[in-house]
Amino acid sequence: MSVSPARRAAFETVLRVFEQDAYADRAFPTAAAALDARDRALAQRLAYGTIQRVRTLDRGIEELGRRPVARLDPPVRAALRLGAYQLAFSEVAVHAAVNESVELVRGAGLERAVAFTNAVMRRLALGLRELVERLPQSTAEEAALRHSYPDWVAETWWRELGPDEALALMDAQNEPPETVVRRNLRKEGEVAGRPDHEIPNALRVEHVDESALAEGLIWPQSRGSQLAGLCVGSVEGERVLDLCAAPGGKATQLAGEVVAVEKHRGRARELEANCARLGAANVRVVCADALELPAELREFDRALVDAPCSGLGVLASRPDLRWRARPLPDLQRSLLRAAAERVRPGGTVVYSVCTIAAAENEAVVDEAGLEVESLAEEWPQFAHPRRPEFLLTLPHRDRTSGFFVARLRT
What we know:
N-utilizing Substance Protein B Homolog, Chain A; 410 residues; 3 domains; globular; alpha/beta; Rossmann fold
């Protein structure tokens, strides 16, 4: 029996992510390069779902397969994980999930492991879905196993949002994210999509139109991310500093004279290319460390600090991030201070991060000691549940990526 192209691409992605420490969003395009749109969509759903749910899947494989996952050959481990995902969390035909998982192991040259893989897959077919449904979720640690998150992530949300909200958030971030683009008003042309009723220029689409993207008519960007850019509120005639600018989604939203800073040379070149494609002639790219800016970069009217973070608000679109994530409050505090030093007195700094964790959100802002300019009246629907002067988009509530946004005055 041959293996479908979609499953083979998903298998290669899962193998590279867990055995070679590759990033899913880099491994998948390579594995799926030859697929048509339908197979590509299936392969991405299988690969990303397996990577997200791997902790739960491994529990099922170990209980029903009666062998530690860590002791399996890497291709066997990847094939069983992929097959287990299909059995527990998809509507794929059972025989296809079982048989093609076996064939993936055979294709990897592990004939000695074929019988074992077949036996385990048949046990999984009989009992995995029921095993998963029986897993308890009355504590953060139990929920972390059932919904496949690191304990610390579940504990953070349990503590800060409460059990019901935490469970809803975990559910939401195991589902495919919204597909939204920002209509680039600098370019004229026809663009398909359904306008969002809350975020100006946001279009809901079935898929990203690659030709429209190449022409600079659109930019793939969640509504949560677009909201952060809108909160800067820059206008023509102002000078704006974007301190962590690559790849340029927010920088190219901004009006005025924009200086976009990027530390890494390769990403700075990518940022320049994106600005050119989108026609953002008002953006000047500076390759520099945000914490060691050139002396002449000062007296800005506004600044945006879209800081590196744990990324707990974008786990739906970055499936392997939950297994890599770590909070970065020290760096965030330093970046916020650096931005505030380069803004004129009375100017504003927008601090945004794509995470849902108080230590990286409101705690960083509170420690900065800057005056908070409330966003409650402008965007009441996205108000932070505990601190309404800030914004916090929540995937389970707002059906977009999770972003924290604060506007501060120097």
